[in-house]
Amino acid sequence: MTDATRAAPSFSERARSLLATPWTITFLIPVVVALLDTPNFGTIITFAINALIGTLPYIAFAVFLIAGLKAAGAEAMIAKAFQGRENRMIVLAALFGGLAPFCSCEVIPFIAGLLALGAPLAAVMAFWLSSPLIDPPTLLITAAALGWPFAIGKAVAAVALGLAGGFAIKAMTRAGLFTDPLKPQRAKGCGCGPNPFDGKPVWTFWNEPARRTVFGQEFVQNAAFLIKWLALAYALESLLVTYVPAELIAGIVGGEGILPIGIAALVGMPAYLNGYVAPPLLAGLITQGMSNGAAMAFMIAGSVSSIPAMAAVWSLVKGRVFAAYIGLGVFGAILSGVAFGALV
Question: What transmembrane ranges does the database entry give (predicted)?
Answer without folding.
Answer: 18-36, 42-69, 90-119, 219-236, 248-273, 294-316, 322-343
